[in-house]
Amino acid sequence: MIIIYYFLASILYFFGAIFLLLLSFKKKYHRSIPARFFLFNNPKFKDADVHFHACSFGEVQALKPLMQKFDSKGLSVVTNTGFEAASKICSNTRFLPFEIFLPFWLKKSKILVIFEAELWLMLVFMAKLKGSRVILINARISDRSYKSYLKFGFFYRYLFKFIDKIYAQSELDKERLKTLGAGEIEVVGNIKAAFLPSVSRVYEKPKARVIVLASTHAGEEEMILDNLNLKENDLLIIAPRHPERFAEVEKLASEYAKKHDFSFAKFSQTHKFEAKVNLLDALGELVNVYAISDIVVLGGSFVPNIGGHNPIECAQFNPVIISGEFIFNQKALFGLVENIYIAKASKIGDIIDSDAKKSKIAVQASADAIIEDIRSTL
């Protein structure tokens, strides 16, 4: 099967190369596509005992506490934001090339650690062929994804033959993985609850009630702002999920502020929160903002097809948390937090104006088994 897969991937690459080259001129992809699909400025790893692989910024941040426990390591990623975050943690960082390049690009490590759903057949096959142990950590399968996985069950049954052990987030994930042919599975909870992100910079808590619109996506800012009725003692911070939307959200936020005669400021210019409406146009600052928040409206959940975002990161600071109804990708994490308000955007104002309960993490997780697995391999 691996030969057929490699042949089909090669054909796909041959027909898609020109399109990818054109797409690489977009700012979002100007670094990742040349590196992944043309190996531009993307050499092999330096020798490393542990090869970590994650997709993007959020996954890299979640992996950071685990990676810091090991000196000899390499980290591969998929996206630009993931690469920027990873480079700050590990100098031996690379983009993961498209699969047809992996047979001659991938270097042997003692263990390959894959985060969540980054299931690339050629990656796990070549790692095993070169003699590496392969583990999948923080494994989860959402309700929506499970249907797609089942359609290609034959493929995943083959892929899981090359993964030595899986550390799943929940018993439900374990059951689903078994159905897909996964072998040894241990439930350890969500690593994001085991390693909570820490504050990197302490900001003085404003005397106002701080309301944060966190990790918002296209269409959500307008929807939420239309249902907000800021009081005199309220201070609003808007934190878009993706940096390429900063300019777009700046326009929305400044118009909203102007309409209501509120002051507006960009964090990148002021580096503080004193305006009535503030745009958080910087990466890596959200956890610092959570630390001074009173109410967090968690984005990615008021529009379909996103599936929600991690509530654990803000719940550690015990704000009131409001989320939309579309949380299919984060159900396991939401189950670990008490007092999250799930509502339509039209109800946000009512919840904010009510005597809402503060959130708290009800269930912690442990990464001890994962750490021991990696150490025992070295």
UniProtKB/TrEMBL annotation:
GO biological process, one term: lipopolysaccharide core region biosynthetic process
Catalytic activity: lipid IVA (E. coli) + CMP-3-deoxy-beta-D-manno-octulosonate = alpha-Kdo-(2->6)-lipid IVA (E. coli) + CMP + H(+)
Pfam families: Glycos_transf_N
Pathway participation: Bacterial outer membrane biogenesis; LPS core biosynthesis
Marked site: Transition state stabilizer: E116, K192
A GO MF term: Kdo transferase activity
Places the protein is found: Cell membrane
SUPFAM superfamilies: UDP-Glycosyltransferase/glycogen phosphorylase
InterPro entries: Glycos_transf_N (IPR007507), Glycos_transf_N_sf (IPR038107), Kdotransferase (IPR039901)
EC number: 2.4.99.12
UniProt enzyme class: transferase
Primary location: membrane
Active site feature: E59
Its biological purpose: Involved in lipopolysaccharide (LPS) biosynthesis. Catalyzes the transfer of 3-deoxy-D-manno-octulosonate (Kdo) residue(s) from CMP-Kdo to lipid IV(A), the tetraacyldisaccharide-1,4'-bisphosphate precursor of lipid A.
Name of the protein in question: 3-deoxy-D-manno-octulosonic acid transferase
Source species: Campylobacter concisus
